[in-house]
Structure to design on (237 residues):
């Protein structure tokens, strides 16, 4: 069995060395980089299966590195932030990270998160299109083609990440009903997701920028305070 290749991007040599040894004992193959430029070069050369990316890097920040990676790759990324830097965690999710952890963390928790992200990523690439009796879901000017994994808004093709597509599919399939954050977490992210519901809010925010006429005043995906969200059904004329 080919070992999972992990790229650790961090500018603290003692931390990187210790983490690399620990991950190798867990069966991972580990490469390292200590800044954004060398990290992007390493990714192009060695094609990692998973990236552990520190937010605080010299020169090019971890957020900028994540943004650059997402221009060409869907490789799973777990961002690492310092404790108390909540804004970094939110930004990390907004630029395309799959999960985040805060320092200091326990190795057991980190490895569990890594394996969960790898499982979800593997399932996304080998699974069939979302289960539904319809090949297309249409609500007003929004059309989801489940077979092609395409979104069109007012007939214009809009690019969605896999998780955004799954979230929008679930919301539209339940159009007109309140969907709780717990329900979204279970049905879209899966029972083994270790993060909190903040990731849902970030993904909803991203979806609104892509489907709403005015994301600041959404009319399609509305917030139901204290409960979750509702995709509003198109009113009959």
């Amino acid at each position: 069995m080919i070992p999972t290749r992990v790229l650790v991007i961090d500018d603290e040599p003692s931390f990187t060395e210790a983490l690399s040894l620990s991950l190798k004992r867990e069966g991972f193959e580990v490469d390292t980089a200590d800044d954004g430029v060398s990290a992007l070069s390493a990714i192009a050369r060695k094609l990692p299966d998973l990236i552990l990316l520190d937010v605080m890097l010299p020169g090019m920040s971890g957020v900028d590195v994540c943004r650059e990676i997402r221009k060409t790759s869907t490789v799973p990324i777990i961002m690492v932030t310092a404790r108390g830097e909540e804004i970094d965690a939110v930004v990390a999710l907004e630029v395309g990270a799959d999960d985040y952890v805060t320092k200091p963390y326990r190795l057991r928790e980190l490895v569990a998160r890594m394996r969960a992200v790898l499982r979800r990523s593997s399932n996304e690439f080998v699974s069939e299109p979302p289960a539904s009796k319809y090949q297309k879901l249409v609500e007003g000017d929004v059309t989801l083609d489940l077979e092609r994994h395409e979104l069109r808004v007012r007939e214009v093709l809009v690019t969605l990440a896999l998780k955004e597509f799954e979230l929008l599919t679930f919301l539209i399939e339940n159009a007109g009903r309140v969907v709780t954050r717990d329900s979204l977490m279970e049905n879209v992210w899966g029972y083994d997701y270790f993060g909190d519901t903040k990731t849902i809010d970030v993904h909803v925010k991203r979806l609104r920028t892509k489907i709403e006429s005015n994301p600041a005043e959404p009319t399609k995906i509305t917030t139901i305070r204290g409960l979750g969200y509702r995709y509003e059904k198109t009113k009959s004329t």
Notes: The two ends are 58 Å apart (CA to CA). Residues 107-126 form the longest helix (20 residues). The longest strand covers residues 77-82.
